[in-house]
Amino acid sequence: PSSSVPAVACQDCTCSNEIDPSSGLFKIVCEFQQCNEICDLGYEYVETNPYDCCGKCVQKQCVLNLNGTKQLLNEGETWSPPENMCEHYTCMRNGDTLTALSSQIICPHFQESNCHPDTIQTAANGCCKICVEIDKACKLISMKTLVSRHGCQSEHEVEMPYCEGSCNTFTKYSAAAAAMEHSCSCCKETRSSNRTVDLLCLNGGKITHTYMYVEECGCGHTECTTTAGLRARKKRSSMLL
Prior knowledge:
Layout: E1 4-5, E2 11-19, E3 26-32, E4 43-46, E5 56-59, E6 62-66, E7 69-73, E8 78-79, E9 87-94, E10 97-104, E11 121-122, E12 129-130, E13 139-141, E14 144-145, E15 148-149, E16 152-154, E17 158-159, E18 162-164, E19 170-174, E20 179-200, E21 206-222, H1 226-240
Antiparallel strand pairs: 1-2, 2-3, 4-5, 6-7, 8-9, 9-10, 11-12, 13-18, 14-17, 15-16, 16-20, 19-20, 20-21
Subcellular location: Secreted
Keywords: Disulfide bond, Secreted
Pfam family, one: Cys_knot
């Protein structure tokens, strides 16, 4: 009595203390095996084989435990803690096991004193700080060039300054608008004047040509569209002719 008895698959049979009146022997009591279908977090109970009595717990997600808080990640998914966007965790498969691998973004050296005022912002990765550096900011660049027009040319190079440099431009997600928020700013002239220059022609004559002389540059808001960019490039090209 109480001993295990070999029996039909997927059943547990035991020799009981109860006597079978017809045979005078102890009765054999059988019951179907109870499968444990409760799995740990990140695992799922799966019927793996029709010949097996019970299924098994199969890992479906990575379980990340940070400071007592558990985070579930699907295979291939990457997640960063809200308080530290420089740290990334990616759920990777190795055979039958899913493991969360950590990686760290190393930000380039950032010195706030090198930044143009009001241009400091967080990069698209949500980790590093970026800005428009003072030496790369929008500014007036001196240039001298010969002016040509209708086959006539200036006798000497003419000073023709232009604007060049970076402005504070960004694209980020706006939770309030539930859409991407774009802000575009371009480096352009803020003060200019018309100047004239005499051009010498091959026939010995002279013609007077008026051109725009840039005196001051700054960042001006513009539309973040391809059309606006093309229009700006065409305008620049026409000014240099």
